[in-house]
Amino acid sequence: MASAIILAAPASGSGKTVLCAGLLAHFRKGGRAVRAFKAGPDYIDPGYHRMASGHDCVNLDPWGMRPETLARRVAVLCADADLVIGEGAMGLFDGARDGTGSTADLAAGSGSLWCWWWTRGARAPRWRRLPKASSITATTWRSRASSSTGWRRGARTAAPQCPRRAIHRGSRCRATVGRAEPAVAPSRPRAGLRERRPWVEDAAAVVARSVDTEALAALARPLQAGPAAPGAAIPPLGQRIAVARDEAFGFCYDALMEDWRNAGATVVPFSPLADEAPDAEADAVYLPGGYPELHAGRIAGAQRFLAGLRAATGHGAVLFGECGGYMVLGRGLIDADGHRHGMAGLLPLETSFQERRLALGYRQARLAADGPLGKAGTAYCGHEFHYCRVVAEDAGRPLFETCDATGAPLGDAGMTAGMVSGSFIHLIDRA
Length: 431
Prior knowledge:
Elements: E1 3-8, H1 16-29, E2 34-39, H2 45-53, E3 58-60, H3 67-78, E4 83-87, H4 103-110, E5 113-119, E6 136-142, E7 152-153, H5 164-168, E8 172-177, H6 193-210, H7 213-218, E9 221-222, E10 240-244, H8 254-262, E11 266-270, E12 284-287, H9 296-301, H10 303-314, E13 318-322, H11 324-329, E14 332-334, E15 340-342, E16 349-352, E17 359-367, E18 379-386, E19 389-393, E20 400-404, E21 409-413, E22 415-417, E23 420-423, E24 426-430
């Protein structure tokens, strides 16, 4: 089993993604078989880690995944790796209200050690909440005070800038980071592959001259997981599944596509932004989430794509959309400037980004009726994260009955009409 470390921090915005990508690219350049994982639900950071490592990044979510699914993901992650680097989600304890799904929860369950990434001026973490079995192996220190110190390779003893609390737990400072280094990620929603490469390369160069990388690698521990079992986190929607994959529909887990292939399904990608219609022989079409609001005009003008969706319903294909894909299945999408763009019109739904409203959190979702995702009552774990509002919807059959992570009811979610269905929830695994 490959050894791993997890990069953790007190909160979001600490620079974990840049450090993780820099480490991955550095070790890859040095010839190591390095792989990456991201704690919790995330579609954006794994793209950076894929760029840096040259391999798909795996999401590990102890709240959203069954133990057998988590074990299967770990087995794939470690199959041909000698070092695995994971990026924590947001802050160390951010997850469900009971602590499940957090970076701390994942580290405790997987036996991994934390590399603590501390930003000067950040609010001190609640150290008393740390499990007794947890370990902080190293501390890297990001200084906001001055760029004159630059990044520097840390000594084997703690540098004076490192927090005393970290020193008292026996960790060692491996690097000090200056504020003015060039490795700064671009705005995530608009960061395409061409934008990612320069800062990933910059981050690798900074890591090479600043971080005691071999000392960190030596501290990694073997990942632990229970017995893996074959199966798919979400059952295949059909035998031949057309999957939208481009800049507007990028929120799709590669591991799920592999699950479907292993279950015997054929996955056929297509690009709505290139005005490609879904495969005419597909018996299912999957529209994942992404950023349709940034490309609404192009989607509205993609007549072959929209006609292809309507044609698919005509020959009885299953159509399923998540979040952004759900919006595209609706009648119209209003962008941030107030312009309405016509969508597929397959669900009686109108959405708007003109007055943004955040919806965020884990979701427990139970099917309200029989359908392609299973029998009525089949339960899933998922995640919701979007800024749009539903501004108009006609009466339709709900897809899910939902609760939050604590079990508090949230009411009906999503919509289904014939073989077309969708919701704002990104499904992770069966419950």
